[in-house]
Write a structure and sequence with these properties.
Immunoglobulin-like, Neuraminidase, 23% helix, 4 domains, 11 helices, elongated, alpha+beta, Serine Threonine Protein Phosphatase 5, Tetratricopeptide repeat, 641 residues, five-stranded antiparallel beta sheet
């Protein structure tokens, strides 16, 4: 039974458990000081009681009860460090006793709050030995024992180096958190708050080529307002921003998610994501996939697995967001599961949770994603996880640089909610990296005739699975686009705009060692007679003309094109390099073109709209003087008749 409890009105004395126990004190001096301290507690003279108990500690250091009473007083007054030290002394100096059950649990909680894992472990184990069956704190103590055992091992086996506080010009606010970086590592976006009373704003800092940061600026007056704009996430191309905002007019709940899109250098007015995503409860902490089409977030809405859960929604073809669904197990637990971050590769979800074994409080975990299913979460270990509650984490697309937010260590005169929160950076150790490494290609889309920037859909397909894995739109003003590519995959990328021939590109990273960012401008040809494109995602074995299975994405795109423009007639032409005889190359090129023709006809494209022809080696795109050039010359083209 505790000596004191803290109520809304302050400290309220109870009939102290220690005062009820007749402590066998034979020394008259000690007895007098003990009784004096108890009377001071009763009279609410807590500081004087602590002074009296300190005198008892000095003169009679073997007595444990005065330490325990002092520890309870310190705890009730908010001085948890002094409370921990006093409790530890008191428990050490008193005999093991079932009557000390609450003292053991309290010592465990205090020790855990300072990362004192061995004292915490000892205290929780003592509590579990004496706690009667059904006692309400048994499950908590059992989890804390597992946490202590995990943490003691983790401290002996650190994973990488400890994050380092980022210097000026960052961390100039009292609070900054939820860092996010664009896929090209050019911009850092985060939430900032000047004081505990001021509202949250979203700021942006340019990352220079040497890795340094520019002065943080408010991201846009169209986004930041008199309301809180916090916990933001930006898409890989830096064109879509989703953030949480509370108490806005017309909101669904007390805190909702809003979306804004950038055209050129201007952000649109934020729009509430609506009832398919938001609830009447608290919805916050969003994270966007690289293409901005999948959104994970945290909510404490009813019907969840635990206290706070992670949900997901996807952007539909009609521009609406699907009804958000709970990720369920194994990601969500009975505890708090919060602050999700989906890596640019889409292969790994990071988040914080207190519902699994860890270092205590909220730890960061990662769950790998394969075929749409989440693997069992893995604790990221020490030093990314500590005894403190961890906040959001972000890892760059190339798995090299990480960012997180951390609360400054406790200070005696600073309340918990006023402790500054700062941004940290770290080199990502191998065990923490996402399951797939990413790079990106970016550039601009132009009209091939006018050379003016063009708005186009840029879509990325995994050629092995024929699955569209990303879809972005080039900027209508600048034409710029950014697409994320993962190592270990062969991709077909398509740039498509109305009344233009599609542009077909290939990226084969299935076994390449070189995995660097690419800059690639795309020029789209208008759908006019005489205009032609190379079909870069049609594949044949050497000297063969049967289409390989990974050609179906390109073939299906051709069918879609022919359906979209029903009056267009085309020639499918085959071309080879100069290896082999002229006659053999002519036959091979014709047969390859015929294979494409046959596939289209078999899939209901009218034969009278198509013709095929082989040109052999007669129309090279480049000199046949290298393997790379010969590969360019081996091709299938589509020409408008």
């Amino acid at each position: 039974m505790p000596l004191l409890v803290v109520a809304a009105g302050g400290l309220l004395p109870l009939q102290p458990a220690l005062a009820q126990v007749k402590v066998p004190i034979t020394n008259s001096k000690a007895k007098s000081l003990w009784e004096k301290a108890q009377q001071q507690v009763k009279d609410r003279e807590f500081n004087k009681a602590i002074e009296t108990l300190s005198t008892l500690n000095q003169k009679f250091p073997s007595m444990g009860e005065p330490f325990l009473l002092k520890g309870q007083l310190y705890k009730a007054m908010g001085d948890t460090r002094s409370a921990f030290e006093a409790y530890r002394e008191g428990v050490e100096k008193t005999a093991f006793d079932p009557g000390r059950m609450n003292d053991y649990f309290t010592l465990g909680e205090l020790a855990m709050s300072f990362g004192e894992y061995q004292p915490a472990l000892d205290a929780y184990q003592k509590y579990l030995k004496v706690a009667p069956k059904g006692q309400r704190y048994i499950p908590k103590a059992q989890q804390q024992v597992a946490n202590c055992e995990f943490a003691l091992k983790a401290l002996q086996n650190p994973v990488g180096k400890a994050p380092e506080r980022l210097g000026a010009p960052l961390n100039t606010f009292r609070f900054q958190y939820f860092p996010a970086v664009t896929a090209d590592n050019r911009f850092l976006v985060y939430t900032a708050r000047k004081t505990g009373e001021s509202d949250e704003d979203i700021v942006i800092s340019r990352i220079e080529k040497d890795g340094s940061f520019g002065d943080p600026q408010l991201i846009s007056s169209a986004i930041n307002s008199q309301f809180n704009e916090g916990a933001g996430s930006i898409s890989g191309d830096g064109k879509t921003l989703v953030f949480a905002s509370c108490d806005r007019p017309g909101a669904v709940g007390n805190c909702d998610l809003y979306i804004s899109r950038r055209t050129g250098n201007s952000w649109s007015k934020p729009r509430n994501l609506g009832r398919n995503v938001n609830s009447v409860a608290w919805d916050s902490q969003p994270t966007l996939s690289a293409d901005g089409r999948t959104l994970y977030f945290t909510s404490d809405r009813r019907g969840g697995v635990g206290l706070e859960d992670i949900y997901v929604t996807t952007l539909q073809e009609d521009g609406t967001w699907a009804v958000a669904r709970n990720l369920g197990a194994p990601v969500n637990t009975a505890g708090k599961d919060m602050a999700p971050f989906i890596h640019a590769s889409g292969s790994t979800l990071y988040y914080v949770s207190d519902g699994m074994v860890g270092m205590g409080g909220l730890d960061v975990y990662k769950a790998n994603i394969s075929a749409g299913k989440f693997g069992n979460p893995e604790n990221l270990g020490y030093p990314l996880n500590t005894f403190e509650n961890e906040a959001s984490l972000f890892i760059s697309s190339d798995n090299r640089r990480g960012f997180c937010a951390r609360t400054r260590p406790a200070e005696a005169a600073v309340a918990e909610r006023d402790r500054p929160v700062e941004l940290f950076g770290f080199e990502v150790p191998a065990a923490v990296r996402s399951s797939e490494q990413s790079t990106y290609t970016q550039g601009r889309v132009f009209d091939a005739v006018t050379k003016k920037p063009l708005q186009a859909d840029v879509q990325l397909y995994d050629l092995k699975t024929d699955e569209m894995v990303q879809a972005v739109m080039s900027d209508p003003e600048s034409g710029d686009y950014t697409v994320v590519l993962n190592e270990g995959h062969q991709y077909g990328m398509y740039a498509v705009a109305d009344k233009y021939l599609m542009r077909s590109l290939n990226f084969d990273y299935s076994d390449k060692r070189s995995f660097d960012p690419l800059t690639l401008d795309i020029y789209l040809e208008p759908v006019r007679a005489g205009r032609a494109i190379v079909l870069n995602n049609l594949f044949f074995d050497s000297k063969e003309y049967a289409l390989k299975p990974n050609s179906r994405t390109e073939l299906n795109r051709l069918i879609k094109f022919m359906s979209q423009y029903p009056d267009v007639q085309v020639e499918i032409s085959g071309h080879t390099d100069d290896v082999g005889t002229d006659d053999d190359n002519m036959v091979l090129s014709k047969n390859r073109a015929k294979s494409v023709y046959t596939y289209l006809v078999e899939h209901k494209v009218k034969a009278e709209r198509l013709r095929f022809r082989g040109y052999g080696e007669s129309k090279p795109l480049a000199p046949n003087d290298s393997d790379e050039h010969r590969q360019q010359n081996r091709r299938i083209e589509l020409r408008i008749l």
